[in-house]
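Input.
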Amino acid sequence: DLTTDVNSCSVCGFSCPAVANGTRACADGVCGIGACAVGFDDCDDDLATGCESDLAADPGNCLACGTVCPTPDNGVAGCSSTGCGLGGCNPGYSDCDGDPANGCERTTATDPGNCGGCGIRCGSGSCTGSQCDCSRNVLILADDSSGGSAALGTALTAAGYIVTQSAVPSYQYD
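Output.
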């Protein structure tokens, strides 16, 4: 039957093309999509692309054609088998509280309490470019040796540290 046969649709020997993620069909002599595989749909109504939308992964067609997931703050929309959610965070941001409703709420590029990732603390330093910048200040307590603390101070200064030396030894004898 030239009106329904996918291998002779409209014309003897004319086969309907394969359908990505679906089955081919011939209806009234016109090739089309018979059915989409479970979890897929033909959201663009284009036979050439077949059942192109993975409804459990496409934030532009999440669980149904035309259901567009909202873009979260500082992140990208995501879609799963349960619906819309947070697909990921923009560089320099993280979702540290696990609440997709407020998106990627932490600036991990500059937050010393979440530097480079959630919970990474810089202590007394600061965070720049997702890296902890620790203090380079050093206090050297004077000792009673001839030049011991001075030699140490010179070496630390050469290594880029800011050195402060106490003027007198830091210990007392009774």
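Residues 2 and 12 are 7 Å apart (CA to CA).
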